[in-house]
Amino acid sequence: MKVLIIEDERHNAKRLKTILTEIDPEIRVVAILEGINESISWFREQTEPDLIFTDVRLTDGLCFDIFSKVRPNCPIIFTSAFDEYALRAFKVNSIDYLLKPVKKVELEKSIHKFKTNKQAPNLTQVLDDVAAILKQQQKNYRTRFLVPNRDSFYTVRIEEIAYFYTEYRTTRAVMNHKQHHIIPFTMEELEEQLDPEVFFRISRQYLINYKSISHIHNYFNGKLHIVLKPEPSEKIIISRDKSRVFKQWLDR
């Protein structure tokens, strides 16, 4: 069975590939793609796989931007850190939906569903329905966090946050006035909850508010050096591929 993975987080793609081969050694991952344009080009040049796994939100947009250009005839399994309501909505026809981090037992169920379902899905209708559901969900972005403080709680407004960063599996929000707060969400979950017009995932470790950008400098080989305020303890360098998407995001 030939499987295509569309995932912009390499560690997630690698983990998914490993679990798939553990479930069934006959599964062959034909490609791992990271973005919309790359995926569109792949579909136009390569033979269609038997099954597609795709993250809903990619660095350069939603996966539905791919399927608005190309319409594969094979089933699609979505992966994302979306909420339970969307999970129920996505489980239609032979298309499945897996919450991140993907669990082996849930992945096994999806593979079994794919192998036993003989009815071909109406992908055009299903993709349109799912895209509409997602867009409706995305209208309600998070506006604040409830943060514990010893024996009490207080709220932190989104507009007060300069950026998020993760270290040792702990996510922290850095405020405009330099204060830090531990936030009980992964970077993937935050990406789903925050307005993509305001926040951008510049690396695995950093998710930034565009208002926190102090300077942008050219770096070696097409990379960018981003200076944030408040300034983090480490130098932030964006890869060449991510730099292109980042500049497109800023230039709106």
UniProtKB/TrEMBL annotation:
Keywords associated with the record: Phosphoprotein
Sequence positions bearing 4-aspartylphosphate: D55
Annotated GO MF terms: DNA binding; phosphorelay response regulator activity
Transmembrane segments: none
InterPro entries linked: CheY-like_superfamily (IPR011006), LytR-like (IPR046947), LytTR_DNA-bd_dom (IPR007492), Sig_transdc_resp-reg_receiver (IPR001789)
Positions of the Response regulatory domain: 2-115
Lineage: superkingdom: Bacteria
Residue ranges constituting the HTH LytTR-type domain according to the UniProt record: 145-252
Record's protein name: LytTR family two component transcriptional regulator
